[in-house]
Design brief:
The protein is of the alpha/beta class. Helix content is 32%, strand content 20%. It is built from 6 helices and 8 strands; from the N terminus they run βαβββαβαβαβααβ. The protein has a 6-stranded mixed beta sheet with strand order 4-1-5-6-7-8. Strands 2-3 form a two-stranded antiparallel ribbon. It is globular, with a radius of gyration of 15 Å. It starts with 12 loop residues before the first strand and ends with a strand. The mean pLDDT is 92. InterPro entries: DUF6924. Residues 13-155 form the DUF6924 domain.
Length: 155
């Protein structure tokens, strides 16, 4: 069973490290994560809650969603997994924290669930737009589809 995440501000983007095999890669990812979020209106300091706890080592996407799905203030979580550590761009896995049981229909579940990869710089765009309900997760998925690598970078 995965641990409860305590002390997270409901407005902070949640990043969880699930791979502990390469400390150098993790330090490089952290350096990217703390860079200002770039928007057309100017740069903003990132607002993150980073979980760097070996208890999350090897956690599968479905386990993470099951653990976090009860948090009504959380729509997505960002995982620094093995792929992230090995990838040149350190693309994190973005998981919609939603289960089918929480949706009224299959269509709603399809629109608001799923996963995609994002560069660390893309977190700000995803987090800001989902936080204010300007866009939904389907918009994030659509934006990633326009990228040759299928990675979300920005809107």
């Amino acid at each position: 069973m995965l641990p409860v995440i305590a002390g997270r501000d409901e407005f902070a983007a949640l990043v969880i490290r699930t791979d502990f095999g390469d400390e150098g890669a993790w330090q490089a990812i952290l350096a990217e994560l703390v860079k200002p979020w770039e928007f057309d209106s100017g740069d903003v300091d990132p607002y993150l809650h980073i979980v760097d706890d070996p208890a999350w080592s090897g956690a599968a996407a479905d386990e993470v969603v099951a653990t976090l799905s009860g948090d009504e203030e959380l729509s997505v979580v960002y995982l620094a997994d093995r792929f992230t550590m090995d990838d040149d761009e350190h693309a994190l896995l973005v998981l919609a924290v939603l289960t089918r049981e929480e949706c009224e229909s299959d269509e709603e579940f399809e629109a608001y669930s799923g996963s995609v990869r994002t560069t660390p710089g893309g977190i700000g765009h995803i987090h800001a737009n989902l936080s204010i309900a300007n866009l939904d997760f389907a918009d994030v998925l659509d934006a990633a589809q326009s990228d040759p690598a299928g990675v979300f970078r920005s809107f």
